[in-house]
Amino acid sequence: MDATGSAAPHAVPHPVFCTIVPPHVLDKLARSDDPALSGPARRTLEADSARRTRRALTTTLGAPAASDAPTGRPARTIHDCGHRTALPGRKVRSEGDEPGTDATVNRAYIGLGATFELLLSAYGRDSLDGAGLPLVASVHYDREYGNAFWDGEQMVFGDGDGEIFLDFTLPVDVIAHELAHGLTQYTANLSYYGQPGALNESVSDVFGSLVKQYTLDQTATDADWLIGAGLLAPRVTGVALRSMKEPGSAYDDDVLGKDPQPGSMDDYVRTGRDNGGVHINSGIPNRAFCLLATQLGGKSWERAGQIWFDVLTGGDLEVDADFTDFARLTVAAAGARYGDGTAEHEAVVKAWAEVGVPTA
Question: Which residues lie below 8 Å from residue 66, measured CB to CB, with a gap of 6+?
């Protein structure tokens, strides 16, 4: 790892298309008899499929080059797609501009800034790439688009359909989750299938939750550990997209079905869908992190988050790492930073044991 916290040279960035709403949720909605639900879901799936294919065809180009932005200062730009799909859309706010009348634009700007601030203040990292990468976002993407995504270069937010999903800039952890895919892209570069993909998703949930807790100045005990709280419309029986504290409990709805996330390896889901269940099995490392943070107490980004950040940026996490690989590296990272046998070291071992992932 270099002085900026960047990954070792072997991690050549390969951008992937990562969404906040899992395909299985949209698939369920697309089969609804209610056209107000199925129509937007089908259009969202079609738009996602097109973007995913486009990203797969262009990954050989690599990630955008590091910028010449001033170190230690964000460089944010927000665009308005005007409910079209051409990216990035019309530029509506640049770094330092005063807030306008569009609340979605303002929330996106603030969310990008909050993520930048956590990375810099807690871990000394200058943006996603460690070298001041500009943070670009587009809002009002497509019509009734029910998702948000990182496409390897920028953030994109839909307005939701108003029936199931509200505006995707409402939860700051959704913004931070997608940006964290960029952080992973520029560091460990975890592949997006099976357990490495579930780790990729989990890392985004972890840092999404950390940004939310940092913004609200919460302790691990105070935090709700929900991802996407406030995103679901009032008609939905649920509180969020995912729960890190209790995977599988975020929603239980007539239309969406029941949250399928497992909280331990005993319930690991083997599937070929969703890139091998990346949004489903991420519940296991999510719960491990929550257990660690609550066991240690205090601010989650300080010790628990530092351990995860050390592993992500340390250069030893391979692109195809599974849960056991990641868990062992967190134990080693806790020992290296805090000492073997310390409370931090023992808490990491205990957290992984509780979710059934071996560390020895």
Answer: 129, 131, 132, 133
- Beta strand segments in 20-83, E: 76-80
Mind giving me the DSSP string for 327-340?
Answer: HHHHHHHHHHHH-T
Whole-prediction pTM value?
0.91
* Catalytic pick among 178, 181, 344, 345: 178
279 is catalytic: yes
What does the pLDDT look like over 298-331, one tens digit per residue? 999 999 999 999 999 999 999 999 999 999 999 9
131 phi, psi to nearest 5 deg: -135, 30
Q: For strands 76-80 and 135-139, give the pairing.
A: parallel
Indicate which residue of 177, 181, 279, 345 is catalytic: 279
Q: What does the alpha-carbon distance between residue 118 and residue 299 come to, in Å, rounded to a whole number?
A: 12
pLDDT confidence of 48, banded at 50, 70, 90?
Answer: confident
What is the full DSSP assignment across 198-222?
HHHHHHHHHHHHHHHHHHHT--TTT
Buried b vs exposed e over 262-291: b needs ≥16 C-beta within 10 Å?
bbeeebbbeeeebbbbbbbbbbbbbbbbbb
The yes-or-no answer on residue 83 being catalytic is no
CA–CA distance from 183 to each of 109, 130, 246, 280 (Å)? 18, 9, 25, 21
Phi (first) and psi of residue 90, to 5 degrees: -85, 130
Phi, psi of 135 (to 5 degrees): -105, 115
